């Protein structure tokens, strides 16, 4: 199989490219490197002995996509490319809708034109908005997103659902990721955020290495066991294998599927701090501050549909996730710029 991976130089993309190459697929990547470095793919080659074909280009450029589909016999597309910062999406809504929604439309047009009819889309638990209950199953209501990033994911899911009705030969799987963390166990590829991280695990990691002084814990008065926010953290290598499972099971069931990728277990901010202190053998300096606007108390998955439909379930524990994050951070204190 030859898989086109959009956004394949990014965090989840690079780990998925590695897993695809390891199992013998050919991989073509299109990435404009707006939030990544091609060093990630060089390291994938170092780890696998195989090289993905990289097009440094924008998915909004339909001519490049057309070229890719005519130069390679693409069997499937995994679509990671997009912008992902919740806060930035509030100040730059047009960029977010253009990259995430228009980018997907351009890609779909070109897939249709080229006769490539298998797509896996990076969706997010954010489509559930403020959860009415946990665990979140795919039957829970979507909507109520509070920022353009989340709304863009919801819009793309709706577009894909409508498109699958018009093109029933297509096989489209929206994978709703919960909170991806961790890194490849080699410590050679991992998450390399620009500037000060917004997400919890990269932030704690930079406190542990001494780049940041103190973690602000956003609220300890939530109705959770220790009062801090609870999330479903999932190892990026488990996510990568979830994409392989989705490719393997694409022909089963209906043309459009939306499936959670989570572990089904929630951990609090304090749990994560403690796991990090154990892995890094250091104290994590933190202070409790006000809640962050838009945060929910708890968000964790019912992951049974992935088990039923994809024969997939996460296998790595929270200690694995934090050990691998720490291994990546300490070997690459400045990410790919190290
Ligand atoms: P990332 O930023 O590391 O990867 C995205 C990649 O897409 C980057 O390499 C970036 O350069 C590229 N890109 C962005 N816009 C592009 C465009 N117009 N043309 C070509 N390339 C473009 O992010 P990630 O964490 O690997 O996330 C991958 C996908 O998963 C995204 O769609 C994201 O919204 C989604 N997702 C991420 C999370 C998370 O917490 N990391 C959670 C749920 C869903
Ligand atoms: C986790 C927990 C915070 C930072 C975001 C997006 C979501 C998805 C994944 C893409 C929460 C707390 C955090 C800090 C803290 N991305 N926290 N101090 O908010 O669950 O999800 O990333 O689709 O759409 O919204 O992840 O890592 O930011 O926060 O106390 O400095 O850590 O309040 O309880 P979140 P996160």
From TrEMBL:
Q: Name one GO molecular function term.
A: UDP-glucose 4-epimerase activity
Kindly state which keywords UniProt assigns to this record, in alphabetical order: Carbohydrate metabolism, Isomerase, NAD
Its pathway, per UniProt, is: Carbohydrate metabolism; galactose metabolism
Q: What is its EC number?
A: 5.1.3.2
Which SUPFAM superfamilies does this entry report, sorted A to Z? NAD(P)-binding Rossmann-fold domains
InterPro entries in UniProt: NAD(P)-bd_dom, NAD(P)-bd_dom_sf, UDP_G4E
Pfam families attached to this UniProt entry: GDP_Man_Dehyd
* Catalytic reaction list: UDP-alpha-D-glucose = UDP-alpha-D-galactose
GO CC annotation: cytosol
Q: Name what cofactor the protein needs.
A: NAD(+)
Write down the top EC class of this protein: isomerase
Q: Which GO terms describe its biological process?
A: galactose metabolic process
Domain named NAD(P)-binding: which ranges?
4-325
Which family is annotated? Answer: Belongs to the NAD(P)-dependent epimerase/dehydratase family.
Tell me the subunit arrangement: Homodimer.
Name of this protein: UDP-glucose 4-epimerase
Protein species of origin = Buttiauxella brennerae ATCC 51605
